[in-house]
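User: what does the whole thing look like in 3D?
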Amino acid sequence: MFSWDLLANALVAGVLLGGFYAAVSLGVSLIFGLLDIANIAQPAFVILGSYTAYVLNNAYGVDAILTGILLTPVFFVVGAIVYRVYYGSFERRGDESLRGLVFFFGILFIVEVCLSLKFGVDYRLVQAPYIGKSLDLGGGVGVAYRLLVPCLVGVAMTAVLYLFLGRSFYGRAIMAVSQDGVALRLMGADPIHIKTIAFGIGIAAASLAGALLVTIAPVVPSTDRDYIGRMFAITVLGGMGSILGTLVAAIVLGIVESLMATFFGPSWSLAVSFGILLVVLAVRPAGLFGR
Amino acid sequence: MTAMARTLAVGVAVIAVGVLVAYARVNPYLYFAGYVILQYVVIATAWNILGGYAGYVNFGTPAFFALGAYTAVCLILTVRAPLPVLIVAGGLVSALLGLGIGYLTLRLRGVFFSIATLALAVVLQTVIINWEFVGGSRGLSVIRPAGPPFGSYVTFLFTVMLALAVVAVITARFIERSWIGRGLAALRDDEDAAECMGVPTLRLKLFATTVSGFLLGVAGAPFPYYVTFVEPNSAFALDYAVNALAMPMIGGTTSWIGPVLGAVLLGSAQQLATVTISSEMNLFIVGVVLVAFVVLAPEGILGLTRRLRRR
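Assistant: Here's the predicted 3D structure for the full assembly of 602 residues, as structure tokens:
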């Protein structure tokens, strides 16, 4: 009962899903990969982005992705504040690993509970003209726009972040702070300032990623848990802090999950990312494009 | 040895008081709530053996707890095993999982270990969801055995959990005061330095993960009889993961009394909030208290009192 159509569809859907996963993982790639801050609250910020997009879409009919882009400055400021608190309470004292982790876990939990207090546990979705339509590629393979648009936005985000890190002054400063904070200070730049900016950008990316998430499928407050594993699996598989590696790893994960969902049932697809994470951590912690 | 004997005597006395309380037949809800608080004493103490003493943060508490619960479900469905067998079996299966994650620490330290434990919980939950025999995602009703040794079944479970809590706390206290506790503290502060000084870090870590896993499984084993309806979402609830680390963090992670203090305070507060406000609200309180404590009082209540005494 093997069908080539099914395989082709699963592969296409997997690649599209991968582009979206890249968007979700960029924040972790930046914050965890480059800054070495174990921000496990990132998925909570993504869901927060989904809900802000939902609220504006529901009340004023603003396009979800447009909302995601418009709200990036707000998320940037939130991220900068979170980093300052984190820095003042943990990094400066030098006990960031254990308590910092607990701190972010607490934030994740608080955001999730606040959302379920406010919105309940009903599924929320957004409206857009392209949702529900699909592009026929011929040969029985179709591409749903609700997957295609987030994928393209995800790839564009990756490209922008890649260029930003490689070409701009602040981008290079972020790369530098990830390598050697002391050396950066000797060059006359303030590592804390640079890290604040990088953390803010990571959280700002969550705003847009959240909008993409709610475009692809309806969300509930607890959706964030599904993404913790994916984000970290992608970041580790791609090689800590490698932006292009993030995209490649995201597409790999997207394809594997999609194949799993098609041939074994969707309830197994969640275990894939965690399985990959465990295997990569055990076998090759440096990832595909590791430093 | 007298210190040990005294500890055991205190433990037996606590259990005896618990039996008396069970005979007192006050409002049945109090036993119901008391069970949950005592269950959190076991969970927090078990988490602290690994997280507090050895410094490995385990986010996968629900995996161990649920493994204990589902082992019990399996044994109930197949052979209708009695409660003591369920508890020991649940503990042993979770201890095996603990041993497994102990070997993971060879490659994974710090953050990576924590993420791996989180991953473990999700993988295990997926397996249970897809396993029809234990109810899959729909869940499964469990019928309590007739005729508990005394009182109603809930008061009986209350005393059982009290006994388990006493065992867990005595175990933690014993570990803390022995060379094992000192070795774990050494590897918590600097694993490489400890290894160089001849501390058998791997054996100690394996011991800590196994004991911690065992106690978490033990806490989960009576769960099917307590709720009488087991389904993956309640057995794998994120609440266990958050409470397991919030309670020791609030009480203080360096001593056995910390998790007990945290579990009793936070557990009672949650029970109160659930009754008076809402169950969502009680989770909100846990999150806020947790973040407030790690930011403002990283040593927990024990650290606060120590600082006050020094003044």
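In plain terms: Chain A has one domain: 18-224. The interface with chain B takes residues 32, 38, 40, 85, 89, 93, 95, 97-99, 101-103, 105-107, 109-110, 113-114, 116-117, 222, 225, 228-229, 232-233, 236, 265, 267-268, 270-271, 274-275, 277-278, 281-282, 285 of chain A (CB under 8 Å).
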